[in-house]
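Problem 3 from the worked examples.
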Amino acid sequence: MQFEYYPETDSLYIKLSEKTSVDSLEVIDEKMVLDFDEKGCIVGIDVYGHASEILDLSYLEKLGVLANTQSKSSDGDVSNQQRAVAD
């Protein structure tokens, strides 16, 4: 399981599987999207725009499952991102 937090959009992606998403479903007042693989299994959960309101991110940080990283966008800019892997 992998957690990726994007502070600039207050979004959190929870990656549950390495499988490719082929379908998605919006839930929770357009604040959460479930991603599904070709067999209909959930492969990821996207909480966007209000992740810090829906989830206790400080708790995830205390557990050590969110760690600061930097990522480069397609145009080469570096942006802050938090990424973690949980067993």
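Problem 4, a separate protein:
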Amino acid sequence: MDELTLNEAMEEMESAEDFLNYFGVAYDPGVVHVNRLHILQRFHDYLARAGDLEEDEDTRRLIYASLMTRAYEDFVRSDALTEKVFKVFHMHEPQIAFVPLNSIGIMKHEPAQEHDAGGCGCGGNGACHSSEAALGN
């Protein structure tokens, strides 16, 4: 991959080990085995925060290497549960929700209306035409 540009190499790499090897980061295979997706996601997050780097390719490669080292080191010093890289780790944390004040109130229920035994329940106080038709009146 040495003959490829940085962008081409980034497209070709697939595993955490590929990235670590390309950027010359010494790593413990046990740490990578347990945290490979977390390391790659953290590296991606660091790249996103770095934004567009207008520097020449050699400078960008150095910056990327330092970000890859930082992402790997995060999981040497810590673990996936503590670092909480993925959204799933945040799902059961307390959530903040906004409830507008005008949506809070007491719901008033209308008192139940008494119906004549012959009524249909439409509130016509037993004078419902549908019940008269049903009774043959």
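Solution to problem 4. DSSP finds six helices and no strands in the chain. The radius of gyration is 33 Å.
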